[in-house]
UniProtKB/TrEMBL annotation:
The WDR11 second beta-propeller domain, residue ranges: 490-830
PANTHER family from the UniProt entry: WD REPEAT-CONTAINING PROTEIN 11 (PTHR14593)
Subcellular location: Cytoplasm, Cytoskeleton, Cilium axoneme; Cytoplasm, Cytoskeleton, Cilium basal body; Cytoplasmic vesicle; Golgi apparatus, trans-Golgi network
InterPro entries named in the record: Beta-prop_WDR11_1st, Beta-prop_WDR11_2nd, TPR_WDR11, WD40/YVTN_repeat-like_dom_sf, WD40_repeat_dom_sf, WD40_rpt, WDR11
WDR11 TPR domain mapped to chain residues: 1003-1171
Protein name: WD repeat-containing protein 11
SUPFAM superfamilies per record: WD40 repeat-like
Keywords: Cell projection, Cytoplasm, Cytoplasmic vesicle, Cytoskeleton, Golgi apparatus, Nucleus, Phosphoprotein, Repeat, WD repeat
GO biological process, one term: animal organ development
Residue ranges of every copy of the WDR11 first beta-propeller domain listed in the record: 22-317
Highest rank taxon of the organism: Eukaryota
Length: 1251
């Protein structure tokens, strides 16, 4: 990069202020690592690590109500690169899909003209990543293609839809929150609209439910949480509740829990309910005590069963689900307590951050959580602040506060899926699952290796963005850039606000440079008197005589020193109308409303003249740009030179002359400031009749000059601007009068836009552009040609009114508007989105998405393939990589912006390949990579350990059957659902049924519990439940017989064959669930799974295989499922790969990755398999190894990484030989061929990025 002192070119940008109420829900934190936030009709893109606004998107005409980043759950390559794609929706029903880097819109979508209620990108299919589901009021859901803007389908429902939530485990499930209850859709698909109207469920409001009446006094009064439980015993009903029972559905939010399947969260102001959807039953409640602060929002986490909650006072709390297994110290307590322990899901408060001061205008709006690491939160406040909180884990000595009653949290032993080695560096706060270990499940032995450290969680405020205060604003840009001040110039904009403070912004970075509290009332105007000091004036509200307190302050920026410029004057006098500083910053004119003007000397701060009472009333005034400073300087210089010549004798003159004179000239220019030559300057003003006066000021003499009679075509003159030989007058009727003083011509132009509020000439020699402000907008004129260049009008092309204007450079204007924003625009005054890569940021931002597609992939490969030729490095120049220096520089900037912790980890030789893959996928926010490597790391280690334990083990047999103690690798989190080990999965399901059993409140629930217990093989407990059926229940007989059947089943041949026959008949006649139950009773669960799969119940079959079958049978069922997932009509190959990983079919996974052209992932995976010894190089595998490695080498060559390409080609054996030869030939010739190939690749990449 070229070193420079001053960036003369300013980027167009928008400084934003307070947030509109309609923007309340418009905020989203994407996998890309950036936050998008709606502010009026603009969208801010914020980098949370450095707390900078790095882009503002402007195209909406109405307030933005929703923003959503697209998901990153696909494999990234040159054809599907890392890109920043955002969808935003506004209050007028328009949806725009943005390419955020260039600030342009991919497509615009419009259906109705009402605010979009909710929208989200579809996450589940490998085929298309462009689908966007939106709720168009009042009751439509529409599926759009977010790339082309075409509508795929539209479906209406009976009630008004408020929001929706996708099931993170099953793409065909969608829940709609409506004005009356919840609608569950189970047949959601992108190809056609849902067929049915969905299953409607009504919510009886917790407060109105009949259970809310006081419990009988005989029972001891229950505690807060118990009370809440009684209250919500019956919550979800299928029939519409009676009118008195439910007055209003005050449910604020519904969302599926991403941490465990089939659970949903409902948020009310005073409680959070956790539902188990299989039972439609509340299994957990987080209630707030009477004195507590109500909830606004809750965000469930995926990595741990935890909730982030936002309260009305702006406090964010983290609640973590309590383990169901008693900790060793509790296990010694009485058994009755142990029974209590699993009565419900309990979410313990583990951490909370500080609240904010809530006032009428300041209240918390929304919180978003980082989806990659789930350990950072951002809070949007209505005054435009964004507070960035980070969760930190503090190690503590064992049980410091046993009184709190919470079981301790432990940090996990593993880092990124692999146990830590003794001297390995790691970041404990990398993500939520590296900060705290699993919630334990009863029956799974809590292994507490010595390495586990007890931790406390704390919130830390790591960043704060603040917006502008409420309008109105007074703007003034500092004096323009010249050749003299170029070395220390800063483009500063002073903004006077309504509360009396002056904000100074540096427009290069767009950041607040200083905030100075100068006045006690609204700032009316600002004038700079040097590059580092300004005068500002404010007037208080008038008293009953119409008099005010005037404040005129002189502010010195570097020191912040501030003093009253007019001394004691200013109390009880007419209001100041305007202040004007002369061009040489020598004199100041102060114009009052009903009082003659004052003339001051700025340098000494003395009053030169207070005009007489008879002085005319001033309506507009401007200083002339002409002065006699140059002629004065020449005279002075001539006199000094003459003196110098006299003092130097003639003999020395020739040698000394030039140097002495140049020294004198230097001294002269320095003394100029201290001596203060008073040059002659002029100003003109108009009176109420439109007569123009001309006044000359020199030193402390003031002379009245010529007067020019008014122009008949003009009304009362409102403002004047003068530059060079052009003088422009604007009047209250919208006429502009252009005077050419040299040619003595005047020309009046009517603009028909009403009162001309302000006119300003652009800076720069010979630049005769003029900016004009009206009540309804602004225009730029060219005064040479006397014609309009561009125009901006409220209601026509913008939705805001202009409050103040100024030029900030010779070709950019700055406008303050009533939506609380200040915009720096090109002279054409079009919207202010800009290219992010052209921006000049104060702090470098880590965001690989900002790089060109090939550069982003290069950066990823550079981090993954460490060490390079034996050394770990963070300098891309150490690698043989041919690319334009500019792009290399950008990649290096990204590497430099990584935190020191991250750099030390990436350069740690102890970091193994699997951990490196996980760390890099977290850094890139690559959802697909992260999921793949998390599952792969777990099973590669599990199978490698099993192989070590018994080499004789048959292949394809999961090791984790048998006691978990033989496998010290920690479990996969339950959020991976059916990918977890069978033993762990079974325990979790038993736990869940136990909870459902405690919570059941109707016969329906009991029946479901009994069915579930039968499938799980818990026959004794199931019989007990079946015998509970009361005699007046129509199913009484049936249930009693079933109980008898279950208890008497013997494994005799005839009874088995009969039951099997009955079961198959039942299944054939549409009673699938009942048939499957019978088959499970006679241990024919494998057949049951086959039937379930035949009837398309793939998820149910996988569940049953996990809880009932032995490893070999279960493996068959899951392999069939994987084949089904690969089929073209399902097209979920990425999910199939994860299933095969959990079965240990590593060779198949390698082949699939390679056939899907995921060359980088395939090569690294095969490498990991070889390292862990779960794949051996033999004839069958060599073909895969060669193909994977050589294709990866080609990929590396195509992005210019020759060194990496050579390394992988040499690993590929025979398959890589040809490639190696090519590479070495190239090195010899440094051939043109490669350059061409690079250009082609580059063009492809550019096409992709512009599409």
């Amino acid at each position: 990069m070229i070193p420079y002192t001053v960036n003369i070119k300013l980027a167009a940008r928008t400084l934003t202020g307070t947030v509109h109420l309609q923007n309340k829900t418009a905020v989203d934190w994407g996998w890309q690592g950036l936050i998008a936030q709606g502010c009026h009709s603009s969208i801010l893109i914020i980098d949370p690590k450095t707390a900078q606004t790095i882009q503002v998107l402007e195209r909406h005409k109405a307030n933005v109500v929703k923003v959503k980043w697209s998901r990153e759950n696909y494999h990234h390559s040159l054809s599907s690169p890392y890109s920043l794609r955002l969808a935003s929706a506004d209050a007028a029903g328009k949806i725009i899909v943005w390419d955020v880097v260039s600030g342009t819109a991919h497509c615009e979508i419009q259906e109705h003209a009402k605010p979009i209620q909710d929208m989200d990108w579809l996450w589940a299919q490998d085929a298309s990543r462009d689908l966007l589901l939106a709720v168009h009021p009042p009751n439509y859901i529409v599926l759009w293609n977010g790339d082309t803007g075409t509508k795929l389908w539209k479906k209406s429902y009976a009630e008004n839809i408020l929001s929706f939530s996708f099931d993170p485990f099953d793409p065909s499930n969608l829940a709609l929150l409506t004005s009356e209850g919840i609608v569950f859709i189970t047949d959601f698909s992108h190809s056609k609209p849902p067929g049915s109207a969905g299953k409607k469920v009504y919510i009886a409001s917790p407060h109105a439910s009949p259970a809310h009446t006081k419990p009988a006094p005989a029972a001891p009064a229950p505690t807060g949480a118990k009370k809440a439980l009684n209250k919500v015993k019956v919550l979800i009903t299928n029939e519409k509740p009676s009118a008195e029972a439910v007055t209003l559905n005050d449910c604020l939010q519904l969302s599926y829990l991403p941490s465990k399947r089939n659970h949903m969260l409902l948020l009310y102001p005073r409680e959070i309910l956790i539902l188990d959807l299989e039972l439609s039953q509340t299994v957990g409640v987080v209630a707030i005590e009477r004195s507590g602060v109500p909830f606004i929002q809750a965000v469930p986490c995926a990595q741990r069963d935890a909730l982030y909650c936002l309260h009305e006072n702006g406090c964010i709390t983290l609640r973590v689900c309590r383990s169901t297994s008693p900790s060793p110290d509790e296990a010694g307590q009485s058994s009755t307590d142990a029974g209590e322990s699993a009565q419900e899901l309990v979410y313990d408060l583990r951490s909370q951050c500080d609240a904010i001061r809530v006032t009428k205008t300041v209240r918390p709006y929304r919180m978003v959580i980082c989806p990659v690491n789930e350990n950072r939160a951002a809070l949007v406040v209505s005054d435009g602040r964004v507070m960035l909180w980070e969760l930190k884990a503090h190690p503590v000595k064992s049980s410091t506060n046993p009184s709190s009653g919470l079981s301790p949290l432990y940090s996990p032993v593993a880092f990124c899926g692999t146990p830590l080695t003794p001297n390995q560096k790691h970041i404990p706060d990398l993500s939520l699952n590296s900060m705290i270990g699993h919630s334990l499940i009863s029956g799974v032995e809590p292994a507490r290796p010595s390495g586990q450290q007890e931790v406390l969680l704390k919130f830390l405020l790591t960043g704060l963005l603040s917006g502008l205060p409420l309008p109105p604003f007074a703007l003034r840009m500092c004096p323009p850039l010249t050749t003299k001040n170029i070395n220390h110039y800063q483009p500063l904009l002073a903004v006077g606000t309504s509360n009396g403070s002056v904000l100074v912004y540096n427009l290069t970075s767009g950041l607040l440079h200083k905030e100075l509290s100068v006045h006690s009332c609204e700032v009316r105007g600002i004038e700079w008197i040097s590059l580092t000091s300004f005068l500002s004036f404010a007037t208080s509200a008038p008293n009953n005589l119409g008099l005010v307190r005037n404040e005129l302050q002189h502010v010195d920026l570097p020191t912040g020193r501030c003093f009253a410029f007019r001394g004691e004057r200013g109390n009880d006098e007419p209001a100041i109308e305007m202040i004007k500083v002369s061009h040489l910053k020598q004199y100041l004119v102060v114009v009052f409303r009903d009082k003659p003007l004052e003339l001051w000397d700025v340098r000494t701060g003395t009053l030169l003249r207070e005009m007489a009472k008879s002085f005319p009333t001033v309506t507009a005034l401007e200083w002339s740009p002409s002065h006699n400073l140059k002629s004065l300087k020449k005279k002075q210089l001539a006199a000094r030179e003459a003196m110098a010549r006299q003092t130097v004798s003639d003999a020395e003159q020739s040698s000394v002359e030039s140097s002495v004179i140049s020294m004198l000239q230097d001294a002269e220019s320095k003394s100029e400031l201290s001596q203060a030559i008073s040059a002659r300057e002029h100003f003109v003003f108009t009176d109420t009749d439109g007569q123009v006066y001309h006044i000359t000021v020199e030193g402390n003499t003031v002379k009245d000059g010529a007067r020019i009679p008014p122009d008949g075509s003009m009304g009362s003159i409102a403002c004047i601007a003068w530059k060079g030989d052009t003088l422009v007058l604007g009047d209250v009727d919208g006429n502009l009068n252009f005077w050419d003083l040299k040619a003595r011509l005047s020309r009046a132009v009517p603009t028909h836009r009403g009162w001309v509020k302000k006119i300003r000439f652009a800076p720069g020699k010979g630049n005769q552009k003029l900016l004009v402000m009206y009540t309804d907008g602004a225009e730029v004129w060219d005064t040479k040609e006397v014609q309009m260049v561009s125009s901006l009008r409220f209601g026509r092309n913008v939705s805001y009114r202009i409050l103040d204007i100024d030029w900030c450079t010779s070709d950019k204007v700055v406008l303050a508007s009533d939506d609380g924003c200040i915009r720096v625009l090109e002279m054409a005054m079009k919207s202010a989105s800009y290219r992010m890569d052209e921006q000049d940021l104060t702090d470098p931002v880590w965001c690989p998405y900002l790089l060109l597609p090939r550069a982003a992939l290069t950066l990823k490969a550079f981090l993954l393939l460490q060490p390079w030729s034996g050394t770990f490095t963070m300098d891309i120049t150490h690698v043989d990589y041919n690319e334009k220096d500019e792009i290399k520089g950008l990649i290096q900037e990204q590497l430099n912006s990584l935190s020191n912790d991250m750099k030390s980890i990436l350069q740690d030789p102890e970091l193994n390949l699997l951990q490196r893959c996980i760390v890099v996928s977290r850094l890139f926010g690559d959802e697909s990579d992260l999921q793949f490597w998390t599952v792969a790391a777990h099973y590669l280690q599990a199978f490698a350990q099993a192989r070590q334990l018994s080499v004789a083990d048959a292949e394809g047999q999961p090791p984790t059957e048998g006691s978990p103690s033989s496998c010290p690798v920690s479990h996969l989190d339950i959020c991976h659902d059916t990918l977890c080990e069978s033993t762990f999965f079974q325990r979790f399901q038993l736990d869940r049924v136990h909870l459902q059993e405690v919570k059941r409140s109707s016969y329906e629930h009991t029946k479901k519990c009994a069915d579930q217990l039968l499938l799980l093989g818990q026959t004794d407990r199931a019989v007990q439940l079946l015998l509970e059926t009361s005699a007046d229940n129509p199913s009484y007989y049936c249930d009693s017989l079933k109980a008898c059947l279950v208890t008497t089943i013997t494994s005799s041949g005839p009874s088995q064959s009969t039951i099997k026959l009955v079961a198959t008949n039942m299944i054939a006649n549409g009673k699938l669930a009942e048939g499957v139950q019978l088959l499970c009773l006679i241990d024919k669960a494998a057949d049951a799974c086959r039937y379930l799969q035949t009837y398309g119940e793939w998820n149910r079959a996988a569940w049953l295989a996990k809880v009932r079958l032995n490893p070999a049978e279960s493996s068959d069922v899951l392999k069939r499922w994987a084949e089904h997932l690969c089929s073209p009509q399902v097209n979920q190959k990425s999910k199939a790969i994860l299933v095969l990983l959990s079965l240990g079919c590593f060779h198949k996974v390698g082949e699939m990755l390679h056939s899907m052209r995921y060359f980088d992932r395939a090569a690294l995976f095969v490498e990991a398999c070889l390292k862990y010894g779960v794949m051996e190089a033999n004839d069958t595998t060599n073909k895969l190894i060669g193909a994977a490695f050589s294709d990866y080498a080609r990929l590396l060559r195509s992005v210019g990484m020759r060194e990496g390409a050579a390394l992988w080609a040499s690993k590929a054996g025979g398959a890589g030989e040809a490639l190696l030869e090519e590479l070495f030939k190239k090195e010899g010739a440094e051939g043109e061929g490669e350059a061409e190939l690079d250009q082609d690749e580059e063009q492809d990449a550019l096409l992709v990025s512009t599409d």
